[in-house]
Amino acid sequence: MVVGETHRESRRRDRGPDTDGAAADPRALDRTERKQLDVVRRFGTVGSLMLAIGSLGAGAAPVFNPVVHLPVLGLLTRMPTVSLTLAFLGMWLLTLAWLALGRLATPGRVRIVSIPQLARTLMMWITPLVFVVPMFSRDVYSYLAQSEIAARGLDPYKLGPAAALSDNDPLTVGVPTIWRDTPSPYGPLFLTVGKWISRLTHEHVVSGIVLHRVLALLGLALIVWALPRLARRFGVNPASALWLGAANPLVLFHLVVGVHNEALAIGLMLVGFELALKRMPKATPEGPFPPWQPGELRWYAIGATVITLGAAVKIPAALALGFLGVMIARRRGGKLRQLFAVAGGLGVIFLGVLTAVSLGSGLGYGWVNTLNTANSIKSWMAPTTSLGFGAGGIGLLLGLGNHVDAAIGVARVIGTVLGPLIAAKLLWDAFRWKVRPLVGLGVALGAVLLFGATVQPWYLLWAALPLAVAAADTRVRTLATILCAVLAVVGPAPTGYNFDGHVFVLTQANSAALIVVIASFVLARKYIPKARPPAADEVTTGTP
Q1: Torsion of CA 231, 235, 238, 240, to 10 degrees
Q2: Per-residue pLDDT tens for 81-118?
Q3: CB of 257 closer than 8 Å to CB of 134
Q4: Which of 238, 215, 228, 223 is nearest to 269 (CA)?
Q5: Residues whose CB falls within 8 Å of the CB of residue 181, separated by 6 or more in sequence, listed in order
Q6: CA-CA distance, 474 to 94, in Å (whole number)?
Q7: In this structure, are residues 41 and 124 in contact, taking their beta carbons and an 8 Å threshold?
Q8: Whole-structure pTM value
Q9: pLDDT tens digit string along 373-405?
Q10: Which residues pair with 540 in a beta bridge?
């Protein structure tokens, strides 16, 4: 939101017609920029279509793939390099289209893309991806297997798919080998919903994938609902927030295509934060603090409940309660006694809701013991694991023996301590109002997950989405943009496998895709929006 623009004026402009309204509204895109927007939309839509077609042969398809015997479509399953090339082409086109769109959504721009324009763009890009084979990860098959375990009345927090369902079960066969003997690391709310899906689909893998994708799209809808509202509240242009958040290629690739349950967890977390602040008046953090508004405490409780439901899907969402508590404590006077009182109240809500969900689901508190399930793998993207490999490798070179596992263990212990310490420091800084609470939340989530035992590209969304609605600092947004763009194209292979011994296949496919992308970029370069510096009278400001 620009300086001097009221909430009502911002919403009126966002609802305005997608026509040449430059004369009526100087902040609307002019004719040339709308033409550029149209080209960017088409560029990204072609990328989505390429990704959808490539997924037929390069996706993380079920072992019993129904596409194999279909005319024409089944041909792609027998041409893996061609399918991979199409998938990589789609990834590059979508990522470049997102970066180009960002030039029309830069905070402080004289003329900026509106929310309806962004919403139509997002719909064009997402629609082809709704129908694709899962890609980049096979986690959705773990969701199906673990949900079926719960549906059969067994304990998914004690039994892995192989032990509970048997090795030959269609649901177990789709689960990566490394996860077949491990219990579920997901919260009781997610497995309860998954149990309902299993009862509806009766172990039919494709139907189960479809319903889990619907669940991921529901989470994305929650994110889209919350992003512009939180952005207005924190003084960031809502269109810029939607661009960095919902249109982000990591969201498209890993939440929509990859069907990850982060969509639901992050969606509930952001919606809960917005609901909690529904009646909180805007005031300077130093005071004076206005009188309490009717229903204010009730909305705090509702918001905290929704955030806790997000934590019942994936536990990192619980960190949002700390930063919400900081805002409420400052609202009540900003003293330590208010901070402890608010922390106690939110703690009661958190434990009460989690207990209700855990016991109501029939699964109990077994999920507490499985939160570290991911520690069983060694992710090269995790700094602690990479540091352990490096230290162990140096030991081998010096003739000290093979101590790689020990070095990784030590590095992970350091990360386990360092991440929460950074989060605690950010909580204190937010309480003293040295950092905005949602900015602190984004950085804290990033630190906790970055220093964890396992890091995946989609984990960055825990940090990027809160930063999208509260970070007005250009450097922070630029860094987030670069990280998202890089991880979008260098993350896991579309098939969900690592291609050990066949890396040349990925190299060949990516090289062919890049040749086409470069040629397309050269042909469309005159329609790419130009980067423009912010105007002096359009600088965004932040309000608590």
Answers
A1: -110
A2: 888 888 899 999 999 999 999 888 887 777 888 889 99
A3: yes
A4: 223
A5: 160, 162, 163
A6: 23
A7: yes
A8: 0.86
A9: 666 666 666 676 767 667 666 766 776 666 666
A10: 2
> In angstroms, rounded to a whole number, what is the distance separating the alpha carbons of residues 38 and 441?
35
Report the alpha-carbon distance of residue 218 to residue 213 in Å, rounded. 9
**What whole-number distance in Å separates Cα of residue 73 and Cα of residue 59?**
13
CA distance 402 to 396: 6
Would you say how long the chain is, in residues?
544
How far CA 480 is from CA of 384, 434, 455, in Å, comes to 21, 20, 16
- Encoded tokens for 148: 């079926």
Query: What residues have CB less than 8 Å from 291, skipping those under 6 apart?
Result: none
DSSP string, 109-160: -SS---HHHHHHHHHHHHHHHTTSPP-S--HHHHHHHHHHHHHTT--TTT--
* Cα 128 to Cα 489: distance, rounded to the nearest angstrom: 19
- DSSP readout, 344-411? HHHHHHHHHHHHHHHHHTT-TTGGGGGTTGGGGS--TTSHHHHHHHHHHHHHHHTTS---HHHHHHHH
What is the C-alpha to C-alpha distance for residues 423 and 430, in angstroms, rounded to an integer? 10
Q: Which helix (H) or strand (E) covers residue 269, if one does?
A: helix 262-276
User: Rounded to an integer, what distance in angstroms lies between the CA atom of residue 94 and that of residue 45?
Assistant: 8
Q: Alpha carbon 13 to chain centroid distance?
A: 28
415 in Cβ contact with 388 (< 8 Å): no
pLDDT higher than threshold 90 for residue 313? yes
Residue with tokens 């007005």: 472
